[in-house]
Specification:
The chain is an alpha/beta fold. It has six helices and seven strands, in the order βαβαβαβαβαββα. A seven-stranded mixed sheet has the order 3-2-1-4-5-6-7, with helices on both faces. The protein is globular. Bound molecules: glycinamide ribonucleotide (GAR). The site of glycinamide ribonucleotide (GAR) has 14 residues, from α1, β5 and α6.
Length: 197
Protein backbone atom coordinates (compact mmCIF):
# COMPACT_ATOMS: atom_id res chain seq x y z
CA UNK A 1 0.00 0.00 0.00
CA UNK A 2 1.44 3.40 -0.91
CA UNK A 3 0.67 5.90 1.80
CA UNK A 4 -0.23 9.45 0.78
CA UNK A 5 2.26 12.06 1.96
CA UNK A 6 0.39 14.59 4.11
CA UNK A 7 1.31 18.04 5.39
CA UNK A 8 -0.50 19.52 8.37
CA UNK A 9 -0.71 23.32 8.62
CA UNK A 10 -1.07 24.72 12.12
CA UNK A 11 -1.01 28.05 13.93
CA UNK A 12 -1.27 27.03 17.58
CA UNK A 13 -1.41 24.17 20.03
CA UNK A 14 -1.85 21.44 17.42
CA UNK A 15 -4.11 18.99 19.23
CA UNK A 16 -5.79 17.96 15.97
CA UNK A 17 -2.32 17.54 14.46
CA UNK A 18 -1.42 15.19 17.34
CA UNK A 19 -4.58 13.18 16.68
CA UNK A 20 -3.67 12.85 12.99
CA UNK A 21 -0.08 11.83 13.81
CA UNK A 22 -1.37 9.19 16.24
CA UNK A 23 -3.82 7.76 13.71
CA UNK A 24 -1.16 7.61 11.00
CA UNK A 25 0.95 5.32 13.19
CA UNK A 26 -1.41 2.44 12.44
CA UNK A 27 0.24 0.23 9.81
CA UNK A 28 -2.89 0.10 7.68
CA UNK A 29 -3.54 3.87 7.75
CA UNK A 30 -3.45 5.13 4.13
CA UNK A 31 -1.50 8.34 4.87
CA UNK A 32 1.73 9.37 6.56
CA UNK A 33 2.36 12.75 8.15
CA UNK A 34 5.40 13.93 6.22
CA UNK A 35 5.50 17.60 7.24
CA UNK A 36 4.06 20.08 9.73
CA UNK A 37 4.11 23.77 8.78
CA UNK A 38 3.31 26.60 11.16
CA UNK A 39 2.82 30.22 10.19
CA UNK A 40 3.76 31.14 13.75
CA UNK A 41 7.27 30.41 15.06
CA UNK A 42 5.92 30.14 18.63
CA UNK A 43 3.14 27.61 17.89
CA UNK A 44 3.12 24.99 20.64
CA UNK A 45 2.31 22.33 18.08
CA UNK A 46 5.78 22.61 16.52
CA UNK A 47 7.47 21.06 19.56
CA UNK A 48 4.83 18.35 19.67
CA UNK A 49 5.54 17.47 16.02
CA UNK A 50 9.29 17.49 16.61
CA UNK A 51 8.83 15.17 19.59
CA UNK A 52 7.17 12.78 17.14
CA UNK A 53 10.14 13.14 14.74
CA UNK A 54 7.97 14.76 12.09
CA UNK A 55 9.80 17.30 9.87
CA UNK A 56 8.63 20.84 10.61
CA UNK A 57 8.86 24.17 8.85
CA UNK A 58 7.94 27.71 9.84
CA UNK A 59 6.61 30.06 7.20
CA UNK A 60 6.10 33.21 9.26
CA UNK A 61 3.44 35.34 7.61
CA UNK A 62 4.65 38.45 9.44
CA UNK A 63 7.86 38.35 7.41
CA UNK A 64 5.90 38.91 4.20
CA UNK A 65 3.99 42.00 5.34
CA UNK A 66 0.92 42.44 3.16
CA UNK A 67 2.37 40.26 0.39
CA UNK A 68 0.07 37.26 0.74
CA UNK A 69 1.22 35.89 -2.62
CA UNK A 70 4.84 35.69 -1.45
CA UNK A 71 3.75 34.00 1.80
CA UNK A 72 1.78 31.42 -0.15
CA UNK A 73 4.59 30.83 -2.64
CA UNK A 74 6.81 30.04 0.37
CA UNK A 75 4.18 27.62 1.71
CA UNK A 76 3.88 25.98 -1.70
CA UNK A 77 7.67 25.65 -1.96
CA UNK A 78 7.74 23.71 1.34
CA UNK A 79 4.90 21.46 0.18
CA UNK A 80 6.70 20.74 -3.08
CA UNK A 81 10.08 20.21 -1.42
CA UNK A 82 8.52 17.50 0.75
CA UNK A 83 6.58 15.93 -2.16
CA UNK A 84 3.29 16.49 -0.33
CA UNK A 85 0.14 14.96 -1.84
CA UNK A 86 -2.57 16.00 0.64
CA UNK A 87 -2.86 18.97 3.02
CA UNK A 88 -4.75 19.18 6.33
CA UNK A 89 -5.48 22.59 7.83
CA UNK A 90 -5.66 22.04 11.58
CA UNK A 91 -6.22 25.26 13.47
CA UNK A 92 -4.42 27.15 10.70
CA UNK A 93 -5.65 30.69 11.21
CA UNK A 94 -4.67 32.35 7.91
CA UNK A 95 -7.06 32.75 5.02
CA UNK A 96 -5.66 31.21 1.84
CA UNK A 97 -6.09 32.87 -1.55
CA UNK A 98 -7.79 31.20 -4.52
CA UNK A 99 -4.33 30.69 -6.09
CA UNK A 100 -3.21 28.23 -3.41
CA UNK A 101 -6.65 26.75 -2.80
CA UNK A 102 -7.12 25.96 -6.50
CA UNK A 103 -3.74 24.25 -6.67
CA UNK A 104 -4.91 21.92 -3.90
CA UNK A 105 -8.55 21.60 -4.88
CA UNK A 106 -9.83 18.18 -3.84
CA UNK A 107 -6.61 17.53 -1.92
CA UNK A 108 -6.89 19.95 1.01
CA UNK A 109 -9.03 19.45 4.12
CA UNK A 110 -10.01 21.82 6.92
CA UNK A 111 -11.58 21.15 10.30
CA UNK A 112 -14.09 23.66 11.55
CA UNK A 113 -15.55 23.71 15.08
CA UNK A 114 -19.23 23.91 14.12
CA UNK A 115 -21.88 22.07 12.14
CA UNK A 116 -21.36 23.79 8.80
CA UNK A 117 -23.00 25.59 7.12
CA UNK A 118 -23.94 26.97 10.55
CA UNK A 119 -21.44 29.26 12.27
CA UNK A 120 -18.79 29.82 9.65
CA UNK A 121 -15.88 31.98 10.82
CA UNK A 122 -14.52 32.58 14.31
CA UNK A 123 -15.88 32.27 17.89
CA UNK A 124 -18.17 29.44 16.92
CA UNK A 125 -18.80 28.16 20.46
CA UNK A 126 -19.70 31.57 21.83
CA UNK A 127 -22.00 32.21 18.87
CA UNK A 128 -23.72 28.82 19.15
CA UNK A 129 -24.44 29.48 22.83
CA UNK A 130 -25.63 33.02 22.13
CA UNK A 131 -27.96 31.73 19.41
CA UNK A 132 -29.53 29.25 21.84
CA UNK A 133 -28.58 26.32 19.62
CA UNK A 134 -29.42 22.89 21.02
CA UNK A 135 -26.74 21.11 19.02
CA UNK A 136 -23.28 22.05 17.86
CA UNK A 137 -20.39 20.01 16.51
CA UNK A 138 -17.48 19.75 14.15
CA UNK A 139 -17.06 19.45 10.39
CA UNK A 140 -14.24 18.30 8.12
CA UNK A 141 -14.61 19.67 4.60
CA UNK A 142 -12.67 20.13 1.37
CA UNK A 143 -11.21 23.60 1.09
CA UNK A 144 -12.55 25.88 -1.64
CA UNK A 145 -11.99 29.60 -2.16
CA UNK A 146 -15.09 30.52 -0.11
CA UNK A 147 -14.22 30.32 3.59
CA UNK A 148 -15.62 27.33 5.52
CA UNK A 149 -17.45 26.04 2.46
CA UNK A 150 -16.67 23.12 0.18
CA UNK A 151 -17.80 19.52 0.21
CA UNK A 152 -18.45 18.19 3.68
CA UNK A 153 -16.52 14.96 4.23
CA UNK A 154 -17.69 14.18 7.76
CA UNK A 155 -19.46 15.99 10.54
CA UNK A 156 -20.65 15.04 13.98
CA UNK A 157 -23.02 16.74 16.38
CA UNK A 158 -22.76 17.24 20.13
CA UNK A 159 -25.57 18.36 22.43
CA UNK A 160 -25.52 21.75 24.12
CA UNK A 161 -26.60 21.60 27.76
CA UNK A 162 -28.19 24.31 29.87
CA UNK A 163 -25.07 24.68 32.01
CA UNK A 164 -22.59 24.82 29.15
CA UNK A 165 -20.00 27.55 28.93
CA UNK A 166 -17.78 28.35 25.98
CA UNK A 167 -15.06 26.24 27.64
CA UNK A 168 -17.15 23.14 28.34
CA UNK A 169 -18.63 23.26 24.86
CA UNK A 170 -15.24 23.75 23.22
CA UNK A 171 -13.88 20.72 25.08
CA UNK A 172 -16.82 18.55 23.99
CA UNK A 173 -16.40 19.62 20.36
CA UNK A 174 -12.63 19.16 20.45
CA UNK A 175 -12.98 15.55 21.57
CA UNK A 176 -15.16 14.97 18.52
CA UNK A 177 -12.67 16.75 16.26
CA UNK A 178 -9.90 14.41 17.37
CA UNK A 179 -11.63 11.30 16.10
CA UNK A 180 -13.40 12.93 13.14
CA UNK A 181 -10.30 14.34 11.44
CA UNK A 182 -8.36 11.05 11.19
CA UNK A 183 -11.44 9.34 9.74
CA UNK A 184 -11.90 12.10 7.16
CA UNK A 185 -8.24 12.05 6.11
CA UNK A 186 -8.46 8.30 5.74
CA UNK A 187 -11.40 8.65 3.34
CA UNK A 188 -9.59 11.29 1.29
CA UNK A 189 -6.37 9.26 1.14
CA UNK A 190 -8.35 6.25 -0.04
CA UNK A 191 -9.88 8.29 -2.87
CA UNK A 192 -13.34 7.96 -1.37
CA UNK A 193 -14.15 11.69 -1.31
CA UNK A 194 -15.83 13.13 -4.39
CA UNK A 195 -14.92 16.75 -5.04
CA UNK A 196 -17.63 18.88 -6.60
CA UNK A 197 -16.69 19.81 -10.18
C1 LIG B 1 -9.79 23.56 16.59
O1 LIG B 1 -10.92 23.61 17.41
C2 LIG B 1 -10.17 23.82 15.15
O2 LIG B 1 -11.41 23.26 14.79
C3 LIG B 1 -10.22 25.31 15.12
O3 LIG B 1 -9.13 25.74 15.89
C4 LIG B 1 -8.86 24.75 16.88
C5 LIG B 1 -7.41 24.36 16.77
O4 LIG B 1 -7.03 23.53 17.84
N1 LIG B 1 -10.14 25.81 13.79
C6 LIG B 1 -10.72 26.93 13.38
O5 LIG B 1 -11.36 27.65 14.12
C7 LIG B 1 -10.49 27.26 11.93
N2 LIG B 1 -11.23 28.42 11.57
P1 LIG B 1 -5.74 22.65 17.74
O6 LIG B 1 -4.59 23.59 17.34
O7 LIG B 1 -5.54 22.13 19.13
O8 LIG B 1 -5.96 21.58 16.73
Amino acid sequence: MSRKRVAILISGRGSNMVALIAAAKAPDYPAEIALVISNRPDAAGLARAQAEKIPTAVVDHTRYGKDRAAFERALEAELEAHRIELVCLAGFMRLLSPWLVERWRGRMLNIHPALLPAFKGLDTHRRALAAGAKTHGATVHLVVPDVDSGTIVLQEAVPIGAGDTEETLAARVLAVEHHLYPQALKLLAQGRVLSES
